[in-house]
Amino acid sequence: MGQTVCICSRGTITIDNKRYFFIQKLDEGGFSYVDLVESVQNGKFYALKRIICHDKEDRKNVLNEMEMHRMFNHPNILHLEAHCIMDKGPKCEGWLLLPYIKNGSLWTELEKLRDTNCFMPEERILKIFHGICGGLKAIHEKGYAHRDLKPTNVLLDDNGQPLLMDLGSMNKARIEVKGSREAMTIQDWAAQRCTISYRAPELFNVASHCIIDERTDIWSLGCVLYAMMFLEGPYDGIFHRGDSVALAVQNEISIPEGCRYSQTLQHLLTSTIVTNPQERPNITWVLNQTKQLLRIEAVEETKLA
Q1: Domain edge (last residue) among 76, 99, 122
Q2: Which of 146, 240, 246, 305 is deepest in the core (most CB within 10 A)?
Q3: What is the dihedral sign for C-alpha 121, 123, 128, 130?
């Protein structure tokens, strides 16, 4: 693990014997902060994520997030540049140095489209969705699941390519539940770590004897696709109204009337947001379907040219 040497005066920090200038705060959550920093060596900008650890469990979670990042070298998963644990008396902070993506998240783009009364073209939806699927496939092939896929956890680089981020909720893809105590433990964990309006139905009321697998991500993936098509997730409005998301996800999803997108894209959407996890496809099927739709789009573009 990288070692932090010091926090120096004049707004500089040192990670792995490399110095960085503090520029400004970018974001702040309940237990974490994201700062914009600049490399003294080459002038490149980075996002420094600082996670506050109050106890051993928090420290374990931070180490897990670091390990998850280190496991992947994929064009659609945000790369971890450096990392360390910074001890501060009884508490500590986990530091993750990540690339700075100035365009922000997919959610940022959706908000802009909504504010200007615009929509996302189908071809762009498919290209972004294809990249998300590619990153997710890499995660699933390693035997893990993301567990908190949502538009705010998808960054868009200068080329419009998606990058999956925030791997702090990742864990083993296949979880065998043996008994009501284990079921309640997983249910409580999901309530804390999996965003409610993108959380799969089986994580709301975990059965006493069941298997939770990576198809929780397929549900979330479908909700992300829905958000790109309609500029908000299928359960975002329900959550903001204070109604029960847990109850709403028990019903099959419906496509809003007057949908501007093709029947094939609508079918892809309804194939992923399926209440019964056993009836959901795996990521390979979703990726292959997306590739096929992209080829159809390319043919249509050629005909129109």
Answers
A1: 99
A2: 146
A3: positive
**pTM to 2 decimals?**
0.92
How far is the C-alpha of 162 from the C-alpha of 155, rounded, in Å? 5
DSSP state of 105: B
The reply to whether 152 and 90 lie within a common domain is no
Instruction: Decide if 82 contacts 2 (C-beta within 8 A).
Output: yes
Cα distance between residue 20 and residue 116, in whole Å: 37
Instruction: Tell me what pLDDT residue 301 has.
Output: 65
Residue 232: give the domain boundaries.
106-304
User: Region 260-288: what's the mean pLDDT?
Assistant: 97
Q: What are phi and psi of 282, to 5 degrees?
A: -90, 175
Same domain, 193 and 89: no
- The tally of domains found in the chain comes to 2
Q: Which CATH number do you get for residue 282?
A: 1.10.510.10
Residue 148 appears among annotated catalytic residues: yes
pLDDT single digits (tens) 177-223? 999 999 999 999 999 999 999 999 999 999 999 999 999 999 999 99
- Distance, CA of 193 to CA of 257 (rounded, Å): 33
**Token digits of residue 124:** 């762009």
